[in-house]
Amino acid sequence: MSAPNNSHDPVEAHALNPDEVARMRAEAMEAVAAANSLDQLKEVRIAHAGDRSPLALANREIGGLPPAAKADAGKRVGGARREISEAFKTRQAELEEERDARVLVEEAVDVTLSFDPIPRGARHPLTTVAERMTDIFVGMGFEVAEGPEVEAEWYNFDALNFLPDHPARSMQDTFFVEGPGGAHSGLVLRTHTSPVQVRALLDRDAPVYVVAPGKTFRTDELDATHSPVFHQLEGLVVDEGITLAHLRGAIQVFVERMFGEGLRTRMRPSYFPFTEPSAEVDMECFVCRGASVGDPDAPCRTCSSEGWIEIGGCGVMNPRVLTAAGVDTERYSGWAFGLGIERTLMFAHGVKDMHDMVEGDVRFTAAFGMEI
Ligand code: PHE
């Protein structure tokens, strides 16, 4: 700090002379007027009205003046500072008003726009695949039949020629429905869609061409390839002169429409109590078309390098079943098939894990582009 300067001449204190104060004032007023945003105005205030602004520094000089000059300089500097402060307040108010008006436009919310208060789900791919499968058969002239999921044991087993001690009836596969007090109810959760064959035949007269898509149940643990609840598409034809060749043809048309032109199908001997002969239906692997068989360098994940993919079971109707359903076996014959809908979805869309199909995550269903 410098020593008091008693010989200080106010006229010579440059910062306090009237022209200089007027210049500082004019400069400040110009800067305030030129400030185009609140941020800019803040900088202007620091520069022209802050503690280290030229006028604030000039103001400090006043203390060192003799009393007479003090009042004069004080009036001049104080007046200039008040005017700047007023100008600052006015500009601040203008800029705030502009900002508020802009925010009202920029951040406007149209409260009249419609919105969906309940997020929409999506159709499950099993449903859409089942419909596609069904449509293929409807296109061949089949009609759609239905039956109950809680089914009489008679339809699920007896009418289909399962003898009372057939292993499929045992507790290992079948969900039995308990009657009152734990009594035998005679009801099961249907283990396949084949009971619909019998219902369809009892409901209508031959000729019969039906498909029955639906839910089926078996006491399997949920894992990547099994689920206690799954779906099948049953098919049944009963007419005069029906042979295994018609069955081959119907399956061939289905596979080509569902998976691609030119894919071959084959039948492997099997056993079901309600068909004779019985077969498992395979289709050619639509990815490798058999090329991966015996070629360790190009394994196929879709068919595990088997070249063939199993899609269901089928066979010529056992006359015992036709008789149980009241059909004249002298005149009519028929065949049936059961296709796995989960398997079809897995192969048609590359779904690898059963968990995805049963968990009901809308992100899974929406991924198929099947929103309603
Ligand atoms: N119902 C049999 C199953 O679930 C499939 C099948 C249907 C076989 C029709 C032959 C005829 O395995």
Automatic annotation (TrEMBL):
PROSITE patterns in the cross-refs: AA_TRNA_LIGASE_II
Gene Ontology cellular-component annotations: cytoplasm
Name of this protein: Phenylalanine--tRNA ligase alpha subunit
Names of the cofactor(s): Mg(2+)
Pfam families given in the database record: Phe_tRNA-synt_N (PF02912), tRNA-synt_2d (PF01409)
Family (UniProt): Belongs to the class-II aminoacyl-tRNA synthetase family. Phe-tRNA synthetase alpha subunit type 1 subfamily.
A biological-process GO annotation: phenylalanyl-tRNA aminoacylation
Domain of life: Bacteria
Enzyme class name: ligase
Subunit structure: Tetramer of two alpha and two beta subunits.
Catalytic activity: tRNA(Phe) + L-phenylalanine + ATP = L-phenylalanyl-tRNA(Phe) + AMP + diphosphate + H(+)
List of residues binding Mg(2+): 276
This enzyme's EC code(s): 6.1.1.20
Gene Ontology MF term list: ATP binding; magnesium ion binding; phenylalanine-tRNA ligase activity; tRNA binding
Cofactor binding mode and count: Binds 2 magnesium ions per tetramer.
Domain Aminoacyl-transfer RNA synthetases class-II family profile as annotated: residue spans: 127-346
PANTHER family: PHENYLALANINE--TRNA LIGASE, MITOCHONDRIAL, PHENYLALANYL-TRNA SYNTHETASE
CDD domains linked: PheRS_alpha_core
Cellular location(s): Cytoplasm
